[in-house]
Amino acid sequence: MIRAERLTKDYGRHRAVDDVSFSIEQGDIVGLLGPNGSGKTTIMRMLTGFFAPTAGTCSIAGIDVAEDPREARRCIGYLPERVALYPDATVRRYLTFVARIHDAAGNVRALVDEAMEKCGLTHMAPRTIGKLSRGYRQRVGIAQAVIHKPKVLVLDEPTVGLDPRQIVEIRALIRSLAGQTTVLLSTHILPEVSITCRRVLILDHGKLVAEDTAEGLAEKAIGRGETTVKLVAPEREAMAAFAALPGVSAADVTGRESGGLLTITIASRGSEDLRPRIAETAVTRGWKVFELAPKIISLEDLFVEILKAAEEKAK
């Protein structure tokens, strides 16, 4: 449904996007993740026909954006980073205007009502947009993007300016579109992609440096080479037993509590999950295990690791 092939965009001597290729299947929700200035917005503007690429091609629903931009745009709902709204218009009047511009198939009033209901704007229909909070203006921006029921929805930072409750509601709205509309959203907020998206494309300095599923990212955050076990056992015997396990590089006591409760941190030579071997060793010897957990790093730390690895590879 969305295809980018070797997309490149130069602004004078600065290369904002560098030879990026990816494809997104129908009904999928994909996150474009990267730090500020990584090229996310530029890619979205090329996909939606606002910018022509310096090199490469992109297509929407099989339509080449450069060859037939008008037909490609009919398939797209777009929420730009800074959505242009008419502050003097009411919510209903503005959305009615947008629906008519799109020449949306169906009853315009019904389409407006449906978009407002989806985005939690029904009670705001008679309000003037200029008097709305930033969060509600963002909702109006999302409503104008979905009003014509596009095949592809492109969202640039969709939850910017929303309060925590609104963020949860907008994320639920985006997830509800899975299977009906193909969604590409950009963000620099890691929880956004882990909660909302099925797949993640990670950009840095205009390059696509990693691609994974949301589940794959979560798995990479677990089992980072260390496992902690809390148990009651003879200290020397436990240390010797765990240190002798295949794949273990070191075992250290990192905590002692009353009742003989030990906290032992066990390091792996690789990224192997050591928990099955640790549990089997403890059960065989009759030791009481109170906790057994892999080291889990935050998604933020994982993101930094991925970017560092990409930068080192590029050197």
Number of helices: 11
CATH topology of the largest domain: Rossmann fold
Regions with little confidence, pLDDT below 50 for 5+ residues:
none
For the termini, the CA-CA separation is 34 Å
Briefly note the structural class of the backbone: alpha/beta
| Oligomer description | single chain
Element-by-element helix/strand order: EEEHEEHEHHHEHEHEEHEHEEHEH
Largest sheet: 6 strands, mixed
- How many separate structural domains? 2
CATH level 4 superfamily of the largest domain: P-loop containing nucleotide triphosphate hydrolases
Range of strand content: 25-35%
Average pLDDT confidence is 88
Would you give an account of this structure?
The protein is of the alpha/beta class. Helices cover 36% and strands 32% of the residues. The chain contains eleven helices and 14 strands. It has helices at residues 40-47, 69-74, 91-101, 108-118, 134-146, 164-176, 190-196, 214-220, 235-243, 275-285, 299-314, and strands at 2-11, 14-24, 29-33, 55-60, 63-64, 76-79, 152-156, 182-187, 199-204, 207-213, 222-232, 248-257, 261-268, 288-296. Strands 6-7-8-3-9-10 form a six-stranded mixed sheet, with helices on both faces. Helix 3 crosses helix 4 (108-118).
